[in-house]
Structures are given as structure tokens and as C-alpha cells.
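quick one, two chains, predict together pls
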Amino acid sequence: MAGPDPSPSPSTAPETSRGHASRIDRLYYTRTAPLLRVQGRLTFLAFVAALGWSAWALTDKSRQLAPGAVVAAHATWENDCQACHVPLSPIREGGWQEQVIAGSATHPAKCEKCHTLASHSLRQVPAEVGSCSSCHVDHRGREADISRVADTTCTACHGDISTHSIAAAGEPTAVLPSVTRFDADHHPPFQSLAADPGRVKFSHGRHLRAGLTLSAGGGADKVAWTYDRLPAADRSRYLPAGVSETDLVQLDCATCHQFASDLPLDVSLRDLRPVSALLAGRAPGAIALPVEFERHCSACHQLPADAGTSADALADAGTAADTSADADTSAATRADAGTAADTSVGPSQLPHGLDAGAIRRYLETRAVAALHAPLEGVIPGERRPLPVAHVPEPPRDAASLDEVSVGVDARRLLVRGVCEKCHQVDPVTLAAEGSLVAALAGDRAPQEGWFGVGPSRIKVLWLEKARFDHSAHRSWSCRECHAGAYPPALPPADVLASSPLDHGQVLIAGMESCLGCHAPRQRDAASGREFGGARFDCVECHGYHGHGHLPPLPVAP
Amino acid sequence: MRIGGKTWHRDLPWIVAMVLLAVVASGFYLAEYLAAGRLPGGSSRTGFVCGVIAGGIVVFELLLWPRRRVRSWRLGSAQAWLRAHVWLGLLALPLALMHARLLFIGGWLNWALMALFLAVIVSGIWGLAVQQWIPGWMLEQVPAETIYEQIDHVAAQHCREAERLVRGMCVADSAEQGGEHGGDDATADSGDHAVITGLRSMTGIQGKVLQVVQIHAVIPGTAAVRRMFFDEVKPYLLDGRRSGSSLASRATSVRLFAALRGSSPTEAAVVIDHLERTCDIRRQFDLQARLHGWLHGWLLVHVPLSVALGVLLAIHVPVALWYW
């Protein structure tokens, strides 16, 4: 049997062209390939899903459209975009859309519906005043601090302040130092600490010594202060726990520099001097309350208005005054006290804080009352006695008037000496009007020889352009920043020389005391000690608003 | 799109321009960052410009789809469109990142938009990468390559050719007369030849050729060949890997056909060789299908997400302008 030819060979009877053509599906392109079919379906699904998401987005703006949650204070308007935004208007300037879109502008008015803020500075270039949101960027989360703005928002101008400030009306253009960051090279020294304008003669060093004496075991008027010599009403405030009343009085910073947070709960606001608005706006422990004579000085420093004050009290007054005043002045006071002793009618304390006219009226009242001795203390408990309240019937005869005049003069000398212990006393000529004695004597001539006490000018707020919070620094000793206030470790005999009056000195350390912490974390090359790391951005200490005049409150429509 | 090689001179200007624009935009962005002290966002000068350009690029990228659907438009060559699509798409990435404050953004819509954008870019880069390697590899590994959509049609054609050869040259098993393997010889060639597909290699070029095999008479002792064809080869030729046939493995195929060759008369070699070659072509078709999936599968991600990106972008733009 013949087998087939095993080798393929070119056909002698090839297929027709139709046969060849049938090997290819000529209509394949009219059918959708499976891959394309799946792709088309997925595309349709994606399109529908995107449309659905878009519709959802328009109904849930706060989560979908907003770049983040607004701060908690603005959460009420979380889903009401137009509470802050104006459609088609940028909320902050700086974009080029301002030039592209006509009428496009910032709209701070929406912020000012709730926020009424003072301007930054009268020297600020008006055209450079940004909108609220140019610094305060919201939508950064509920807990974001939108008041903690970037340093560049400040250094944009303060980096070259001379070109970004104008002269205020009527003022010469001041040369202000530029600031680019907080360090010794790029930040000027604290100008608020340049000088102490205080006028009350005082020595922190002497007051911080045990017993508060100028010398150990001095004369009768220089007996060291022990707690039992303090008035009973004040003793508990000064006596530390576990200390005997016979121990020497030891004051510390907190004795006089109290904070609102340190005050006992039973202290009535009426007992406190009105606190300035600057203090009221700060945290309770941020700034020390003003030092007040009645609360912080009067326990030792009594103000005898009559030489009839007890000998002990007068001696105490003299001794205490010595701790704060010059020796010469102290001697004059004792001499005055001796002169006035002749007209003693009983103990009296001059209310603190009277002006010259009030002092005159008070002394005249005391002199008139002396004619009716014995007399109770004048208007006890009142710090600002009415000038003629409870005055006995005044004398009419010339002899009595002379006696009153002599009494007034004696008391005036005494009081002047007492005031001069601590205060700068200025001579004052008073008009006859208001004088009880002049009215009775028919004298209309101005009265010479009176005096007035100038303002103490004790600064309550030292860092005027910056914030400082004592409570945030409570872990540090006071000495870290106020070393100059402490007495040197010297024998008591040298205290006077080593602890001079310091009311003209600034006892607050400067910027260098801040830079130990408020700087980038770094290592000291010499000691190898690491330091820094606390915040040192501009807003850590400075605020932008509040140094100008407040605009009027908006009136609700 | 293949990058480099003969088209390098066309890609180079795009690359240079893209890098320059990205560097310039980054420079402006850095300067604004240093001046403002915080990352510029979408409403900043640089961020806004970057956003506008990136948005315009996205719109242009989406136009590739209608451009392909309407090939009759004379709007530049398809190659030029694809090249612009690739390079402008890559340029859009840094621009969009700067517009989006380097991803320090909030809002679900913004995140969805950015996630879609990144997914589209990544899928596009993936697609571009596979297009650099797979076509060349396919050229080497799949010399029998045919049009992807024609694979089943061509495989069926090959199956018919093989069946014609088997029916004309192999003995029908008597036990199988009337059975599924041989009872119906209607497909058997009534003539003296069969046209079959073969592979021919010439000077390094491989390709399919048509061959004619003369059929003189049935070869005795080839019932096993015929049985194997109907049991193993035909299902594999028709359905490929989906059939689950062991012929999908080249090693198994070689072993099976070697065994068949050993148990068959020498004259049957032409049939067995043809069946083995046809199975080899079918395996190439399987490989081609897999490579096709790699080569075009990324479009299942790229295209749908691009459309979703376009929709969300259409919402983002007016919303951003309304509340900027």
C-alpha cells in the first residue's frame, strides 16, 4: 500500500482567495473586545460614582468642601460657609486673582461682625494692613490655635521696619530696630526695661534681710523687727507656719508681690486697689498685683498724724522708715515728731494717698478736734475721709484759732517728714478756699508751706509690648530673673552700704535670661549642656492687636 | 508608546521642557514658601497658577479619548497626541502637588480628587512602563502573534485544519465508529490536500505561513493519533488554557507528543509534528492573551478613574472659586 507523502509541499492546487480570506474574521472590529467591554462598564460606574460623590459633597460642605474643621469657637458656623466667606471673593489678599477678577477683594467685615479689635500701630502703612485671614488661617482643625501666626507675618514688616512704617501725625519718623527672630543678634533689647521711673524710695535688699534692721542691735529706734511687734491684725499674714512670734521678720518676694491667684478667698474686692485693664485681661497668675501701702507696708510703716501717737508706734514708724529712707530724712522725722509731741491729743494715723488739699483739711480737723480732747480716732476705718465730716463745732475766738494754727503747723511738719521717708515731696501753695482755719479767720491769702506727694510711678506692667506670665515660670526661682533685688551676703553692719536704695534701678533681667530656654534646642559648645527648646516665635510674647484705638462697637441692624 | 530608540529625538524636547517647567514652578513655590513661612496652598499665587495649569492638563488628557474615537479629525497624529498625553500628564503631577500644598490638604472632596489624580498618574506610569518592555518581549516570545480579538477565531481555524488532516490520514478506531471521534467524517477533506498553518523562520524573522499537505491515504496504526487529537488536542486548540488541558504546559506537550511519536508509524510523523506545532501556536496565543492583559489591563484602572477625576475636577473648580 502506498503511503502518503510525509513532507508538506507547496500545493499544486492552492486554496482560492476566498478560502484565504475566510481565515480572517473580517468583521472582528465591529464587535467590542471583552477588555473594552469591561473598561466601558467600569468607566460608566466611575462616572456615576463621581456624580454621586459630587452631589454628596454639595450637601455636606463642612466635611467635603472645607479643607478642614474650623476652630471650636467657629464651630457653630461649620456648615454655613457664607458666614465668613463672600462668594467669588478671596478671603485673604495676596492672590493674583485680585488683579484678574474685577471687584475681587478681601472681606474682613464678616470677621468684624464678632471681632472688634484695635489697630496694630499708628505707624503702620495702611496699604499693608492685611485682612484677618491673611494671618489667622482657619480650617486647620478644632484645636488649632489660629492666633499663633507664623513669624513671617510679623517679619514681613518688622524685618525691615524702616520701609514699612510711617510717621504718626505730628511725630517724627522714629528709627525703629528691625526684628527677624528672637535672639541676641536679631532682636533689640527690651526697651521697656531701659529705666525705672519709680519715685518711691525703696531698697529691696534691706527689706529682704531678717529683722529689717540697718544694724544689728542698734539704738532703741533700731530694734530688729520680730513678728510680735506687728499689729495683731496683720501678724497672721506675715507669720509663716512653724515660726515663733519672737523670731525676726523675714520677708520674701511674695510678701508684697502678690498675684490674684494667691489671694485668700475671703478677700473682698473692696480691699483691693482697682486693677488696671491690662492686668484684668491677663491670667490670674501672670502679673503681680500692684503693691499697696495698706496691704503691704502699713503693718510696719505707720503714718502718725499726731505726735500723740504712742511712743512705741512712733519709734516703730521711725525704725521702719529707716529701712527704706535715707538716714538724714529719718533724723528729720524724729525731730519733727518731737516737736509735735507738745500738741498730742491722742493717737492718729494719716490716711494714705491724700493730696495736698486733703492733707490740709485732715490736719485742720485734727487740730480743731484737739480743742475738744479727749477725742476718739478720726473717722476710723475710712481710707478717704470726707474733709469736714464729724468736725466738732469750730472755735470762734482768736486764741483758739491761734492754737489751731499752731497745731496744724506742728502736724504738717510731722506729716511731711513721714511722707518724705518714702516719697518725693513737692512744695505746694494752696488757695485759701477749702481751708477751715482760713475761713474762720477771714484770711483769703494763699497758704505757703504745704506740700504734695508726687505720683509713685511704680510700674505695674513692665513689659509693655510683650506678654509675660509669672505662673508659667513658677518652677524658677525669683532670683533667676531678679537677682539684683536680693541682699548681698554681707555682715549686717555693711547692709546700708551694700543695699542702697534701688528704686531707680531695673531689677528685671533682660533678654539674656529668656534665651536660655526660648531658643532652638542646642548644645553649649563649652559645657556640653543642652538648652533651649521653649517656644520663641513672635506671638509667644507679642500680640498684634490692642496697641491702638478701638473702633466703635458695631451697631446691630 | 515606546520612549527612546528611534523616537528619542521626539521625546527629548518634551523631557527638557517638562523638567524646566517643573523646576521653574518649584522655584516660585519655594520662594513663596520662604516669604510666607507656610506652604502655599491652592489660593496662593504659585498654587493657583499650578492648579490652573494642572487642571488644563487634565482636561487635555481627557481629550485623548474623543480624539481616538473620532480618528477622522485631523488634529495632529495619534503619536503626537500620545506623546503630549504622556509628558504633560507627568508634568501635571508636581503642579498638582504644589497646588495641593504638598498633600497637606483637607476635605473629603479634595482628598478624593487627589487620590484619583494620583491613581490615574500611577496607573498611567505603570502602563507606560509595561509598554516599554512587553511589546518587544512579545515579538520574541510570540512569533505566531495574531490580532488579539482574532485569537479564538484563528485557533478554531487551526483546529479545523488539524482535524481535516487527522481525519484524512489517521485510522478511525473501529470501536469509535459512529462515536464522537470519527463517526462523522464530513469534515474530512474529500480532496488530496489540506491547507495548514505553519511557522517559518527566515533571517531572524519569524512568521506564520500557509502550507499544503498532500493526503494520499490513511496511515495504518494511527488510531492513537486520532484518539489523542480528539481527546486532548482539539479541546486545547479551541479553548486554550481555559480547557484545563495538560498541553498548556510545553514540557508536558513535548513529553506527550514524544510518546505518541514512539508508538506511531513513521509515516504519521507529519501529522504528529503538525499537531505539536499547532499546540505550540496555541500556547503562544495563550501567552499573547496574558501579555495583552498586562499590556492593556491598566486601562481598566486608568480610564475609569480618569473620567471620575474629570467629574470631581468639574466640581472642585467652581467650589474653590466660590469659597476661596
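The mean pLDDT of chain B is 87.
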